[in-house]
Amino acid sequence: MERRVIIEGVISQVSISNVGELEEFDYNVDDLNESADIESFMQEIDAYAQSGELNATTDIKSYRVMNSEDVEYCAKSDEGKEVEISLDDFKLKNQTLQPIKELLENARVGDIIYLRKEQGRGSYELSLELEDSSGEMSLGYFDCSESLDGYDLLRESYYDVVCDTILPESITAGDSKAVVENFLFEPQLIYGELYRVIITENGEKSLDRVALPGYYFQEASRSIEE
């Protein structure tokens, strides 16, 4: 049988990419002191992101996530009968942070990491193939306390964008993985930060936030439908 799952609320599209791999990107972040230079710098990165070039030419990890308190409506539909449910009806399954860690491990000292977050209202409609209606559903969840200790969380603040969030597209039931049938998204805020890959005094590779104000892109909201 087919089950439909509907989730509505505030969604964040988060991506972390190594823009140091872009040959066309020739800015020196140490020379960015004026607000006009910062704006030009961030607008150029935004253009790469909008065109899809970041996805095609850089090492990038992207996620669509939601904070549990931002889920405004959740329902399941079996045989066309829609019933409202809550996140408590899902078994939470911790998602690994290893893909993000590997991106940072593969980056070279001096590379620039670009963190981008698009946030706005959106909705999901997903489908699952189940043997019967009693099948338990699992939902992916980033529980950073299992992957990072308190020191890591303080030092590596860029993990904040995914910590303690759910991933609607990760819903499973038995051997069935959810398929996104419809996704609507209206970003209202687009935010960017830059980090430089450094070696700490302890000889560990880490990210140092570039001393620029977090940049908010002033763009008109748009809708994306899949």
Task: Give a structural overview.
The chain is an alpha+beta fold. The protein has one domain (2-225). 18% of the residues lie in helices and 47% in strands. The protein contains five helices and 13 strands. Strands 1, 2, 3, 4, 5, 6, 7, 8, 9, 10, 11, 12 and 13 form a 13-stranded mixed beta sheet that branches. A hairpin with a 2-residue loop joins strand 3 (71-78) and strand 4 (81-84). It is elongated, with a radius of gyration of 19 Å. The model is unreliable at 218-226 (pLDDT under 50).
Summarize the SSE layout with pairings:
Blueprint: E1 2-18, H1 35-51, H2 53-57, E2 60-67, E3 71-78, E4 81-84, E5 90-94, H3 98-106, E6 112-129, E7 137-141, H4 144-147, H5 150-155, E8 165-173, E9 176-177, E10 179-199, E11 205-209, E12 215-217, E13 224-225
Parallel strand pairs: 5-7
Antiparallel strand pairs: 1-2, 1-3, 1-6, 2-8, 3-4, 6-10, 7-8, 8-9, 10-11, 10-12, 10-13
Features:
single chain, 226 residues, alpha+beta, 13-stranded mixed β-sheet, 13 strands, elongated, disordered C terminus
**Total discrete domains:** 1
The multimeric state of the shown protein is single chain
The low-confidence runs, each spanning 5 or more residues with pLDDT under 50, are 218-226
Largest sheet: 13 strands, mixed
Give the number of helices.
5
From the alpha carbons, calculate the radius of gyration and give it in angstroms.
19 Å
Main structural class: alpha+beta
How many strand segments? 13
- Average predicted confidence as pLDDT: 82
Strand content: over 45%
What percent of the residues sit in helical stretches (DSSP H or I)? Answer: 10-25%
H/E order of the elements?
Answer: EHHEEEEHEEHHEEEEEE
